[in-house]
Specification:
The structure holds 2 protein chains of 2 kinds. Helix content of chain A is 38%, strand content 21%. By secondary structure, chain A is of the alpha+beta class. Chain B is mostly helical. Chain B has one domain (2-234). Chain B is built from 11 helices and 1 strand; from the N terminus they run αααβαααααααα. The chains are: A alpha+beta, B mainly alpha. Chains A and B meet through α1, β1, α2, α3 and β7 of A and α3, β1, α5, α6 and α7 of B. β1 of chain A pairs antiparallel with β1 (64-66) of chain B.
Chain lengths: 210, 238
């Protein structure tokens, strides 16, 4: 898997890529999935477990706020940081959340967003479990995500990264520094020249360099 | 990155979260401007400190930042890049692009072969990886050979091996903000050290990254972004 310049340097909001940006992205992905599975409007309640390190330091890292924003359909790249406090205040005071930005559900943070520092899911400590229920409290959907650092998120049982569209093939793939240096040797090019060619697989040169 | 530095440099006050950590960047900038006429030979490093603090204070306040490669370590790459732009004669747009491309190449090595998650391997994966990326980016922008660039990256991570993640109160403030400033200085040192060498060196970047991964696996959970050990335990909340 190729990890590009714009995967590593991503616009987001503070204070943590793994504990703020990642959970926001996971929550948005969950809401988006409910929408594309055509069950968004059947949802009356959403339950979220933040496990391991997310449960332990999530409060200081604004993870609960990030999850609520994600459920609203906000993305880390586009959310307006200054608008966050009032948005969160409204959810907390009304106990209502617009799932996916359009479907009203009750959301009681104390019950529906649970910090589980002692639960460590096997793949990575930053595990998140999202569940959506219908009116009769039947489980409509359950998905598990992991925030694996730097804002990168993976979903259990799904290949690749959530919400990333890097190409599988690049002209100069490298998995180690040794392979990278060998590629420089072989092609008589510098590291930046190889990287620019890799990036150009899915962006024009101008896009890469602006 | 530039906008984040600028916003951080002009904003003062107390950071949210209850630790009552004061933002320092705005006051530091005022001091540095006042001292400009009497500045000594290391004044450039104070500016690097300023830029790193500015980014991480913005981050701690929930502001907009660019991961590099994470938020908690987001100040190092921009501070070192601004050092290049501001203080290097002949700095160019091409040099900035080189810097970021090479830093990303190094970052992808950490991501692929170890981890950039403090909850996974401790701070070595965040500030350590960022220092390595910035060192490599600077060495490349200054015209280093691929071997020298790899050496710079290796020095950048080697001396962060074993670094724990022990945020006081679980906030991305202490020790995170200051640590970014210190690591930015280390990245510049690493790049300069590598550029004075031939590129041939004993420990390879791949070996250092593998060591980081192994050390992270051995590290107790209380040192992995759980706020249950280290400074988080010994710094009493007041």
């Amino acid at each position: 898997m190729y990890i590009g310049v714009f995967d590593l340097f991503k616009v987001g909001i503070g204070p943590s890529s793994s504990h703020t940006t990642g959970p926001m992205r996971a929550a948005k992905s969950f809401a988006d999935q409910l929408e594309s599975d055509l069950i968004l409007e059947d949802v009356t309640r959403v339950e979220v477990d933040l496990c391991g390190s997310l449960g332990a330091t999530g409060r200081g890292h604004l993870s609960p706020e990030a999850v609520m924003l994600g459920l609203l359909g906000e993305a880390p790249e586009t959310v307006i940081p200054d608008s966050v406090p009032s948005t969160i205040h409204e959810i907390r005071s009304t106990q209502v959340l617009l799932l996916g930005g359009r479907h009203r559900i009750a959301f009681r943070e104390d019950d529906d967003l649970r910090m589980k520092p002692l639960t460590r899911l096997s793949f990575h400590t930053n595990g998140m479990v999202f569940r959506a229920f219908d009116e009769g409290d039947g489980l409509l959907s359950q998905r598990t995500y992991y925030s694996i650092g730097g804002g990168f998120v993976v979903e259990e049982g799904v290949e690749g990264l959530v919400d990333e569209a890097s190409p599988e093939m690049v002209p100069h793939p490298f998995a180690t520094a040794q392979e990278l240096l060998q590629a420089c040797d072989r092609t008589s090019r510098t590291i930046e020249e190889l990287m620019l060619q890799n990036e150009s697989m899915w962006r024009s040169r101008d896009e890469v360099t602006t | 990155m530039e906008a984040c530095i600028a916003k951080g440099c002009r904003t003062s006050g107390i950071l949210p979260g209850g630790l009552r950590v004061a933002r320092r960047a705005a006051e530091l900038q005022r001091q540095l401007e006042a001292e400009a006429s009497t500045a000594d030979g290391l004044a450039q490093m104070d500016w690097v400190t300023l830029w790193a603090l500015a980014v991480n204070e913005e981050n701690a306040a929930g502001g907009r930042v660019v991961t590099a490669p994470t938020n908690g370590a987001a100040g190092i790459v921009p501070a070192v890049l601004k050092y290049y732009v501001t203080f290097i004669d002949g700095a160019s747009e091409e040099g900035i692009i080189t810097f970021l491309l090479v830093a990303a190449a190094v970052g992808s090595l950490f991501k692929q072969n170890a981890s950039i998650s403090g909850a996974d391997v401790g701070c070595q994966g965040e500030v350590g990886a960022a220092c390595s990326m910035a060192a490599a980016g600077l060495a490349a922008a200054l015209g280093g050979s691929p071997g020298q660039v790899e050496n710079a990256a290796e020095i950048g991570i080697e001396h962060h091996l074993g670094l724990t993640c022990d945020p006081v109160n679980g906030l991305v403030q202490i020790p995170c903000i200051e640590r970014n400033a210190v690591a930015a200085a280390q990245a510049i040192t690493a790049a300069r050290m590598a550029l004075h060498g031939t590129g041939t060196h004993r420990v390879s970047l791949d070996q250092a990254i593998k060591t980081m991964k192994d050390t992270g696996a051995d590290m107790q959970d209380k040192y992995k972004e759980t706020a249950l050990g280290g400074l988080a335990l010994n710094v009493v909340e007041c």
